[in-house]
Specification:
This protein folds into two domains: 197 residues, Alpha-Beta Complex (Quinone Oxidoreductase, Chain A, domain 1), CATH 3.90.180; 141 residues, Rossmann fold, CATH 3.40.50. It is built from eleven helices and 18 strands.
């Protein structure tokens, strides 16, 4: 069958819209009609070459839609099911899944290659075999994905909101609730209020933090953070540092969650300085693999018993945490509608990312059209 998709052909070049061929589902695979896709910063890392991916690649790793067909051996979903796609698949049987750490499932080893198990590329076109970002490629009208990437959700959930729970929402929420282990009365500093940071704000608030400090140079981002649970907002790390020292009487923050679009040594150092004894720095933002972004005093790390943790997918287990987080949305404890700034058509994907990079959006969503 044919599908229209947004493709990265070469790092640094604009995303291109192409009509591609999509093979049907085979063993363990499903055909999904994507209804919505989230515009997440990680796609820009591929487009700009910050992350080394096999190209050409259909972008998009936040997706929601409806299962249209299943291949042999599929047991997790059936035709007609509404699903949210997990940007990290979860096999359920590898060492990491079996020990409750689905976010680092071994099956995720090829998410930057974009092929399904067995080196299979369901998408082909004028440039040969096309990878799908995170084995999903949600910037396509249709996709063939592995059942381990699909999480069934309630039919009455609006998929244009639920789509965000495939990556950005649990990544931020879980960075606070799981990785930082925010407790009632804590002081939490969040650096960068984009699609991940705004949900770290929500997670920290829900976990009971007394002080939730949002740091972002853009006023619209700071305003949104205050609307959704931050108690303080500052334009610079220096301003935040002074306030944190004052509000904790010199003790420092309990955790600093780093969610900027492109991680730098300066941001890591700011977070490290903000936390007090026994505090935790949580790093979620990315940069190039060869870019060393952590240069800190080992003596301070040891003598103050500070911690630095990397967090992927918010240390969530998507098979249980995606439905759980959506349940919090249904109960009104987590806001999704309020973080969507604008929607786009697939043809407007470059405009959507221009808006993201310009800081206009907290979150943007692509609405797929099907004839």
């Amino acid at each position: 069958m044919k599908t229209k998709a947004a493709v990265v052909v070469e790092p640094g070049k604009r995303i291109e819209i192409e009509e591609l061929d999509l093979d049907g589902p085979r063993e363990g695979e499903v055909l999904i009609r994507y209804t919505h896709a989230g515009l997440c910063h990680s796609d820009i890392h591929i487009a700009h070459g910050d992350l080394p991916a096999r190209l050409p690649m259909v972008l998009g790793h936040e997706g929601a839609g409806i299962i249209e067909e299943v291949g042999p051996g599929v047991t997790r979903v059936k035709p007609g099911d509404h699903v949210v796609c997990s940007f990290i698949p979860n096999c359920g049987v590898c060492h990491y899944c079996a020990t409750g750490r689905q976010s680092i499932c071994d099956m995720g080893a090829t998410i930057l290659e974009g092929y399904l198990p067995g080196d299979r590329f369901p998408i082909t076109g004028p440039r040969g075999q096309y990878g799908a970002m995170c084995m999903l490629g949600t910037f396509s009208q249709w996709g063939v994905i592995h059942q381990n990437s699909a999480v069934k959700v309630d039919d009455d959930l609006p998929l244009d909101k639920a789509v965000l729970v495939g990556c950005g929402v649990p990544t931020g929420w879980g960075a606070a609730v799981n990785t930082a282990n925010v407790r009632a009365g804590d002081t939490v500093a969040i650096y960068g209020v984009g699609g991940i940071g705004i949900n770290a704000v929500q997670g920290a608030r829900y976990a009971g933090a007394k002080n939730v400090i949002a740091i972002d140079p853009l006023e619209n981002k700071r305003e949104k953070a205050m609307e959704l649970g931050a108690t303080h907002a500052f334009a610079t790390a220096a301003e935040a540092q002074t306030a944190i020292t004052d509000m904790t009487r010199g003790r420092g923050a309990d955790s600093a969650i780093l969610t900027v679009g492109l991680m730098t040594e300066e941001v890591v150092s700011s977070g490290f300085d903000a936390i007090g004894k026994g505090g935790t720095v949580v790093v979620t933002g990315l940069n190039k693999f060869e870019e060393a972004t952590i240069h800190l005093s080992g003596a301070v790390l040891t003598l103050f018993r500070k911690n630095i943790k990397g967090s992927l997918f918010g240390d969530c287990n998507p098979t249980t945490d995606i439905p759980k987080i959506l349940g919090l949305y249904q109960s009104g404890d987590l806001k999704l509608d309020e973080i969507i700034t604008r929607t786009y058509t697939l043809e407007q994907v470059n405009e959507g990312y221009d808006d993201l990079l310009a800081g206009k959006n907290v979150r943007g969503v692509v609405i797929h059209e099907h004839s």
